[in-house]
Amino acid sequence: MNSRNVVRLFFSTLAIGGISTLIASFFVKTGAYIEFMNPIDWFEILGLFIFFLALGFVFSLISQMGFFAYLTVNQFALGVFRRYWPIVQIGLIAFALFDLVYFRFQAEGGSLLTYILVAVLLLVYSWIVAGIKAKETNRKAFIPALFFMVVITAIEWVPGLRTSGGDYAWLMIVPLVICNTYQLLILHRLTDQSKREREMKEQS
């Protein structure tokens, strides 16, 4: 992928993270907005917009670091585990989902059903995204895509899960999932585009 498309991926993902977090804040942090609605304090509301937008940029950077770390780890693991790497990934997916349920329940308490539901929703969504990735590229891309969407997203989500209260955990997962989905599904398109541009440049 050429440098222009790398820059494009960076800034487009950054924008997606900021906007998705800002939109999510309307639902997750409704109380923060209501506080300045009666009477309307536009200065404070603008401050909230800027705060959540900037927070989304941070979440996007976490997503991008996770994505490029995964690309590096995946290449390294292919060299180490070779044909067993897909099996290892399946095991890590199962452990990540178990961790989202059991260890969170042990650490935080609350309703076990909520943790199970979150893990199931993440798995179902990741399965759909991995299916799209495999359809647009090849069948072998399914397990790596599922691994990225489940395991890497869960790892990236850890800072949000450790915050007191659940608001920022829910606020964080939205941009992480959206940014990870975007990066995963746009990568092969940008790679193909870079290849075509390089071939056209060589022919000219």
List the helices and strands and how they pair.
Layout: H1 3-28, H2 30-34, H3 42-81, H4 85-108, H5 112-136, H6 142-161, H7 167-203
Helix pairs in contact: 1-3, 1-7, 3-6, 3-7, 4-5, 4-6, 5-6, 6-7
User: What is the total number of structural domains?
Assistant: 1
Largest sheet: none
Structural class: mainly alpha
Average pLDDT score: 92
Distance between the termini: 19 Å
> Would you report the number of β strands?
0
Helix segment tally: 7
Q: Strand fraction band? A: under 5%
- The arrangement of helices and strands along the chain is HHHHHHH
Q: Enumerate the spans where pLDDT stays under 50 for 5 or more consecutive residues.
A: none
Please estimate the helix content: over 70%
Global outline: flat
Rg for CA atoms: 19 Å
Written account of the structure:
The protein is mostly helical. It has one domain (3-203). Helices cover 87% and strands 0% of the residues. It has 7 helices and no strands. The chain has helices spanning 3-28, 30-34, 42-81, 85-108, 112-136, 142-161, 167-203. The longest helix is centred in the N-terminal third of the chain and has 40 residues, at 42-81. The protein is flat and about 65 Å long. The chain starts with a helix and ends with a helix. The relative contact order is 0.14. The model has no long low-confidence stretch (mean pLDDT 92).
Record keyword descriptors for this entry:
87% helix, KinB-signalling_activ, flat, KinB signaling pathway activation protein, transmembrane, 204 residues, mainly alpha, transmembrane helix, single chain, membrane
